[in-house]
Design brief:
mainly alpha, Rossmann fold, five-stranded parallel β-sheet, two-stranded antiparallel sheet, 50 helices, 7 strands, globular
């Protein structure tokens, strides 16, 4: 959340004291309590909110109310207000969920909703939850959250939705199962008797039956139209003539009647209505600031008493809002009558909101006023806090509304804009903004204090601007692969910063560490990263610090320190868990990589569980790199489990989601695809990769391209084995010898481990077992010490032969036999999978156009047992995304939309007991 909770959104509106009794509708709402949902759906002005508030007052059932607005399309904001609304009726629930949602990286919606549903189920008292004005929220994630609630709410909790249009919810299913009640426009229209009673109360006139009938007919029982007509008739001598004077549809009636109402209001009141129509919420102080009328509070109360479409938002009558349709027409009149006054009104509103700690509203009004200087100052001041809480998208939404010239004239804002764009991987756009900050720093303006005061809102950020610009330059240089420039810019940033500026020194130090990593100086990289992360943690920027873990652990992996790499990830995750769920969200990438390392140690269950956790955490991750790393992890997992086609698809997806940033691609997706093509025997495709990426055996070697050159060595080995090409084998061995020397000189035993394995396979392909074992022996010793498993066993049968020979010759015999046992186990499992199994349960006959596969039936059976997708993934050792994919296919084949429907349909077809 970027602003305090507006408690006025949680206030149940009091029904008008003179409201017309509507027992037939109250009975309809009473009937809905036995069902899951009551949907009150009708156009504007049909009294939806009034009806529901009157019903709640009459039935005396505990209720939670949420008045929605357009900003509630953000799922975190929506859930935050849902929790707050529920807590108004049940204070004992939702405290933990409220804290989690307020965090910089909230948990996924489903986990919050599950916790709420469980808490509600434990509360025995009945409850009504009202979502008012649902039509203003146009967001599929919010629809999904409400659908989840409808599927899982306990029987004593009832949901009411008021809306101008039917929401994207499973309404047809709910209707078919008798789980909802509809209240439509036809139900809400006043009957002639109700219209007569309303008009009598509203006007104090005994209208002729014919006039009542005419009004009822022309408005078609539309309550807002009748209310506006009643206001217009007050004080008229010729009521009958007025009744005959208007016709048309609702829109024209509103325009006409509002004009009539405004024309009959006192000048001060009319001006007040028009001027305050720009506000989403109104209170006396705010309206006084906007209109200059000191008695604005009394004016609001008077408007409410006059039923002038003013809705109280709290029980103290402090906050109000106008009826939405009424406000729309008021704004149209304001713009038509005094267009020059609108900007000034927005500026005054902006000043008031800024003074009262409501920056988002202050910025919105400043932008609406086209007061770009004020908006820019407010946006600039919000950057540090929003950056540290990963609210880049919201901040950029404001900054993007400013003219480029306004941004470029403000050095701190331009620098912040550049960093916001860098966070999204938009390198070229960021460089344009950064250049503006640099021009200011280099120009005469930088030396003029008076001029600086005009274009700088945050003096503290100006003081460190040269250093933050240098750090941004380091980020850009590293994203482009210019390691030398990265190191130079990062060191300049450190030179410019004071010793006690932990935050900025931490950022610059981490960038320096990443650059040293890319350069292959792993010892220097590790030192810089450890110091940078410690600085960031000391500054309270734990999420920033955690992001360095990915690089730090991969450095230790390159050093051949598998145990240290695993410990690095585990320690970071433990630290995040101590800080709470919101910090844990920042560890999605770490879980993905840790899962891969668990698999390296042949702990498939822990690997599957950790990978699934990383995927679940990442759905709400603020990291722009997470989805790219997710697809890389999926590709490696699928390749390891023999799904080479799936692995290639995942690598294609990784390339589509790549975001340029400072972390180097030590194992680029294109090289990983080439390795899969080699495994598939598609050597021509792999050779095309080498040509396209200019990878040759005679290249100068570097750490950044090490994975590509090892891939080329594998390609040469495969060609030599397929074609009996001893020259290719010789090229492979020569390249591998150069790679080994470079990796040993660079302190990369992890790289040496793989290089030695490929060397041993190349010697074995030349029938030189002695040479093969000579280079394999040190790799086995290192592997045994660090616990490597899959690095050897994933090489398959050729490695099995070498391991058997090593064991026979006493080379790490215990370790070699352990690896051989794993290879034998997998070989037997593969053979068993390929052979027909007579004792397997028969797949039931399926009356479907496209039958379910055995795996889909297995997933469906676990769904029927109530297991979550995450539990199914762990049970079957599948990625969470794979389980979700199976679910989608199952739903399509069964022609259903939800899990409960799938189980019911499968039982109808005899696919489940």
């Amino acid at each position: 959340m970027d602003a305090p909770l507006l408690t006025t959104k949680l206030y149940i509106p009091a029904p008008p004291a003179d409201a017309v009794p509507r027992p037939r509708l109250l009975a309809l709402l009473d009937d809905g309590l036995a069902r899951r949902l009551t949907l009150v759906s009708a156009p504007a002005g049909f009294g939806k909110t009034t009806l529901v508030s009157a019903w709640l007052a009459a039935c005396a059932r505990p209720a939670a109310w949420l008045s929605l607005d357009s900003r509630d399309g953000d799922p975190v904001r929506f859930l935050t207000y849902v929790v707050a609304a529920l807590r108004t009726a049940l204070p004992a629930i939702g405290e933990r969920e409220a804290r989690a949602l307020a965090a910089p990286q909230p948990p996924p919606a489903e986990s919050i909703l599950t916790a709420l549903v469980n808490a509600l189920a434990m509360q025995p008292d009945p409850l009504v939850l009202v979502l008012d004005d649902y039509h203003v929220v146009d967001a599929p994630p919010v629809d999904d959250a409400v659908a989840f609630l409808l599927d899982h709410l306990p029987p004593h909790v009832h949901l009411v939705i008021t809306t101008r249009e039917d929401p994207r919810l499973p309404l047809a299913r709910l209707r078919a199962r008798g789980q909802m009640v509809d209240v439509r426009a036809a139900d809400l229209r006043f009957t002639p008797a109700e219209a007569a009673a309303f008009l009598q109360q509203a006007t104090g006139l005994a209208l002729a039956a014919a006039d009542v009938a005419a009004l009822e007919a022309r408005t078609e029982g539309w309550i807002a139209g009748l209310q506006l007509a009643a206001l217009s008739m007050r004080g008229r001598d010729d009521v009958h003539g007025f009744v005959q004077a208007f016709a048309g549809d609702n829109r024209y009636i509103v325009d006409y009647l509002v004009e009539e109402v405004l024309a009959r209001r006192p000048d001060a009141e009319r001006a007040f209505l028009l001027q305050t129509s720009i506000l989403e919420r109104l209170c006396g102080d705010l309206c006084a600031a906007v209109t200059g009328q000191a008695a604005s509070g009394e004016m609001l109360a008077g408007l409410e008493r006059a039923n002038l479409f003013v809705v109280a938002l709290d029980d103290r009558r402090r906050w109000y809002r106008y009826h939405h349709l009424f406000a729309d027409v008021l704004r149209a009149h304001l713009l038509a009558e005094t267009p020059g006054a609108v900007a000034a009104l927005h500026r005054q509103a902006s000043d008031w909101h800024a003074a009262h700690g409501l920056p988002a509203d202050a910025i919105r009004h400043a932008l609406a006023a086209d007061d770009h200087a004020r908006a820019a100052a407010l946006i600039e001041a919000e950057w540090p806090a929003m950056d540290r809480t990963f609210q880049t998208a919201t901040w950029l939404g404001w900054a993007n509304a400013l003219p480029a010239a306004e941004v470029d004239a403000r050095p701190v804002l331009a620098g912040a804009y550049a960093w916001a764009l860098l966070n999204r991987g938009e390198i070229e756009a960021a460089e344009t903004r950064l250049a503006a900050a640099e021009r200011w720093l280099q120009g005469e303006q930088a030396a003029t204090g008076a001029q600086a005061a005009e274009v700088v809102a945050d003096a503290a950020q100006l003081a460190v601007l040269p250093a933050t610009v240098a750090a941004a330059r380091a980020f850009i240089a590293q994203a482009r692969g210019d390691v030398t420039a990265t190191i130079a810019h990062a060191r300049r940033a450190l030179d410019l910063l004071p010793p006690d500026d932990d935050l900025h020194r931490g950022i610059a130090g981490a960038l320096l560490g990443v650059a040293c990593w890319a350069a292959g100086d792993l010892a220097a990289a590790e030192r810089a990263l450890v110091e940078g992360m410690a600085r960031l943690q000391a500054a309270g920027a734990l999420l920033f610090a955690l992001r360095g873990t990915y690089a730090l652990a991969d450095i230790r992996l390159a050093q051949g320190r598998l145990a240290a790499a695993i410990h690095t990830y585990e320690a970071a995750i433990r630290l995040a868990e101590q800080e709470g769920e919101h910090i844990l969200r920042g560890t999605a990438d770490l879980h993905l990589r840790l899962g891969e390392l668990y698999r390296e140690r042949d702990d498939e269950a822990a690997a599957a569980r950790t990978l699934a956790r990383g995927e679940a955490l990442g759905e709400q991750s603020a990291s722009p790199f997470w989805r790219y790393r997710l697809y890389l992890a999926r590709a490696r997992w699928q390749q390891a489990h023999g799904d080479l086609a799936g692995a290639l698809d995942a690598l294609d997806a990784a390339e589509r989601h790549h975001v340029r940033g400072p972390v180097p691609d030590i194992q680029p997706p294109a090289a990983l695809k080439a390795r899969i093509w080699i495994a598939q025997g598609r050597l021509d495709d792999a050779q095309a990769w080498a040509r396209t990426h200019a990878v040759t055996a005679g290249d100068a070697l570097s750490y950044l391209r090490e994975a590509e050159h090892i891939t080329l060595a594998r390609l040469l080995l495969a060609r030599g084995q397929r074609d009996g090409d001893r020259a290719a084998l010789g090229q492979a061995l020569a390249l591998l010898a150069r790679l080994q020397r470079a990796a040993e000189a660079g302190g990369r035993p992890g790289s040496v481990l793989e290089i030695r394995m490929v060397q041993s396979l190349a010697h074995a392909a030349q029938d030189d077992t002695d040479a093969a074992l000579a280079v394999l022996a040190p790799a086995l010793a290192h592997g045994a010490a660090e616990g490597y498993v899959r690095a050897f066993t994933d090489e398959g049968a050729p490695m099995a032969s070498l391991l058997a020979a090593a064991a026979a010759r006493g080379i790490e015999p215990s370790y070699a036999r352990t690896l051989l046992a794993i290879l034998d186990r997998e070989s037997a499992a593969a053979a068993s999978h390929d052979e027909p199994q007579d004792d397997r349960p028969a797949v039931p006959a399926q009356p479907l156009v496209e039958p379910l596969s055995p795996r889909e039936l297995e997933v469906l059976q676990l769904v029927a047992q109530g297991l979550s997708n995450r539990d199914i993934a762990a049970r079957l050792h599948l990625a969470l995304s794979t389980v979700k994919g199976h679910n989608r296919i199952i739903f399509e084949k069964l022609a259903v939309q939800r899990r409960t429907e799938a189980v019911a349909r499968a039982r109808e077809l005899g696919l489940l007991p």
